[in-house]
Amino acid sequence: MTTFELAWDSRCGVAESPVWDASTRRLLFCDIPGRRINALSVDDGARASWDFPDVVGSFGLCLSGRFVVAQRHHVVLFDPRTKAIENLTDPVDEPPTNRLNDGKVGPDGCFWVGSMDENTPRQKTGALYRVTPKGDIERKAEGYAVSNGLAWSPDGRVMYHSDSTAGIIEAWDFDARTGGLANHRVLATLTNDEGRPDGAAVDVEGTYWSAGPSAGCVNRFSPSGALLSKLPFPVPGPTMPCFAERHLYVTSLREGRSPEALQQHPTLGGLFRTEAPVLGAPVGLFADA
Fold first, then answer.
1. Alpha-carbon distances of 8 from 3, 27, 52, 56, 153, rounded to whole Å
2. Structurally, what CATH architecture does the domain formed by 5-286 represent?
3. What is the mean pLDDT of residues 4-25?
4. How high is the pLDDT of residue 289?
5. What DSSP element (H or E) covers 261?
6. CB distance 98 to 54 below 8 Å
7. How confident is the model at residue 270 (pLDDT cuts 50, 70, 90)?
8. CB atoms within 10 A of CB 1
9. Which of 55, 194, 231, 257 is exposed most, by the fewest CB atoms within 10 A?
10. What is the mean pLDDT of the chain?
11. Alpha-carbon distance 209 to 177, whole Å?
């Protein structure tokens, strides 16, 4: 049986976008409403944090050592050594009630990031973008309420994505040379038992691990969308898994939980880990150098 332990009682509003940096042996993750990126050294437990002027929807690692960071309506480059922030893009063409959400660096060396609607109920006004190292923005797909779940197969030939509100996991054939997408298909439509598909990661065997916050679990799917296993999570609201060598790290959310839930689960919004049965797929680096 999988047992998760608390790695950092960070109590983020919405902890998200965990990224493994093998060069520094740190597990990084953001707090979206807290406007912060956190870093945990897996060897000695040392911690670091950097604050931003706007929400941090997601981020990725750059070849230069910087981070590529999705703010509310645009993407920036951040140097953790100097704390310098440089605008990479102009504002995306989005409704004012939308913001950038889940994002990852793809095998093409570009930053892929989706948007979401913050209205209640959410509308399908979100889109999925490809951001190049030159700051060019290309809209690749649209019609999402909450763009989420980006991940790539180990060979970089398949891109996965989800819409949390619609409860679907989808995929395309991916061209790592051009960032081209083809052969779109819906792999799975999730039930209440699996929960809404949130952030995701892929392992070296090609299986897709997806957080199910509304069901308090992490789901593992085959490349064709078959549910292989469901891991119970120690607190409600797991948001995204991330492989770091022989461990699986998972972030969680605290925002919007009732006082009773917070009393019962005081570590909501924390970073958790467990031993991983398999290694993760390679982590992409933004080709800014």
1. 16, 11, 20, 19, 29
2. 6 Propeller (2.120)
3. 98
4. 82
5. helix 259-264
6. no
7. very high
8. 4
9. 257
10. 97
11. 25
The Cα 58–Cα 18 span in angstroms is: 9
Active site (annotated) includes residue 44: no
Q: Answer for the pair 82, 93: CB distance below 8 angstroms, yes or no.
A: no
- Beta bridge partners, 251, equal 240, 271
Q: Residue 1 — pLDDT band, cuts 50, 70, 90?
A: low
Q: Which residue is listed with tokens 């995204």?
A: 240
Q: What is the DSSP letter of 167?
A: T
Contact criterion met (CB below 8 Å) for 223 and 208: yes
Locate 7 and state its tokens. Answer: 């790695």
Per domain, the residue ranges of the chain are 5-286
Write out the DSSP string of 176-221.
Answer: TTTTEEEEEEEEEE--TTT-----EEEBTT--EEEEEGGGTEEEEE
